[in-house]
Amino acid sequence: MKILVANLGSTSLKWRLFQFAGGEERLLHRGGLERVNDYGAALEECLGELGRAGHVRGAADLAAVGFKTVLARGVTGCVRVTESVLEAMEAFNSVAPAHNPPYVAGIRLFARRLPGVPLVALFETAFYQWAPEAAMRYAVPESWCAAGVRRWGFHGASHKYIAERSAELMGRPDVAERVRRLYVDGGRTPVADPPLRVISCHLGGSSSITPLANGLALGNSLGMSPQSGLPQNNRVGDLDAFAVPFVMRTLGLSLEEVERQLCRQSGLLGLSGLSNDIRDLVRAAGEGHAGARLALDVFVHSARHWIGSALAQLGGADALVFTAGIGENQPELRAAICRGWEELGIELDPEKNAAVRGAEGCISTGRSRVRVWVIPTNEELVVAREVKRLLEQEAARGGAGESASAGAAGSSVN
Length: 414
Ligand SMILES: Nc1ncnc2c1ncn2[C@@H]1O[C@H](COP(=O)(O)OP(=O)(O)O)[C@@H](O)[C@H]1O
Ligand SMILES: CC(=O)OP(=O)(O)O
Ligand SMILES: [Mg+2]
Hints:
Pfam family, one: Acetate_kinase
CATH class of the largest domain: Alpha Beta
Structural class: alpha/beta
Strand order of the largest sheet: 3-2-1-4-6-5
Number of strands: 12
Mean pLDDT: 96
Cofactor: Mg(2+); Mn(2+)
Largest sheet: 6 strands, mixed
EC number: 2.7.2.1
Bound molecules: adenosine-5'-diphosphate, acetylphosphate, magnesium ion
Shape: globular
Protein name: Acetate kinase
Number of domains: 2
CATH superfamily of the largest domain: ATPase, nucleotide binding domain
Radius of gyration: 21 Å
CATH topology of the largest domain: Nucleotidyltransferase, domain 5
Binding site for ATP: 14, 277-279, 325-329
Order of helices and strands: EEEHEEHHEHHHHHEEEHHHHHEHHHEEH
Low-confidence stretches: 402-409
Distance between the termini: 18 Å
């Protein structure tokens, strides 16, 4: 069974093609494009590359295409994409303006280009279904919460992968197995003592930090929208809610203009006035650009704030993990984030830290009580496994029937 996963990130397109056969998972192909603005053209390039490599010449070559979709009204988990799922995503376009519109368009493009191939979505919010209610609520009236104003949490596929892989690296196969089975039994797979406490730092085009207790999320720095928490590439991150009516009144901005500026001209770009890409900012800061320096400093300050929160929620940590575009590749920022934490039992080894870029490795000293890791994420594998499971469930039921999640009913788009 061949499953393609298309990961439409806020700055990139990444894809991986997996073959599942006889209990084995094999990666057949992977690729990606950076600094993407036109996702339609990027997806055509992906399909072209898969065709030229001889892997996907037509619909018959694929069992399914999986998508790491962000959020939808009333839908989570792993579902067949139906018209009503797309409508539920569109209903939250204004909550995830950088993510939902390109995903809906991208899914429709696959439906046209690969007619008949099952299209399946694993929503990023799925990983937080079991997080404590106190970690997921805002202090707003109940009617706001009922309308969707609550913390949803994102980067679920990535933090799930880190939960599993970090448990393996920390010698905890029991916790890794619980994580693998999470969407089967809701985290009820038993684990041994002592508890494994991991802080997962996904730092990329969007960034988020999650405390993991025995593989389960206790929350996420991303809240109701993927524009919260740390400053994002060109999206705002945390902001006092009263700033919005204030700038509308005092600067005379329309609601649409406020939304546009918060989503396109804020974050690292807004702070630096230069770029939304950390590579440009590190280079420019080195050349004395004050805006770039400020953007990096705010990013580091915010990362430390959220790691501190995770440390407090977990009551300490056994491992701290850096992943995604920035976390995997940027030793200078990892060092700045972990500065002065020896008393907390976190001590980076400067040489190991400098040496690990885009690869898996431990970057803490032998003395460090908390082991610090770089783990390249594999969101696509997490999605592909759930897609496979859904197809197998459907086959066992004798066809693509009703899906487990609310709101997923309706005619399949493919
Ligand atoms: N080789 C690299 N060195 C340093 N930073 C990088 C590198 N590659 C990517 N980045 C940073 O990571 C971001 C992309 O993160 P990533 O998680 O891969 O993408 P997305 O958010 O689109 O899913 C870039 O915008 C850039 O800031
Ligand atoms: C929220 C999310 O999935 O972020 P990104 O697209 O940047 O990876
Ligand atoms: Mg991403």
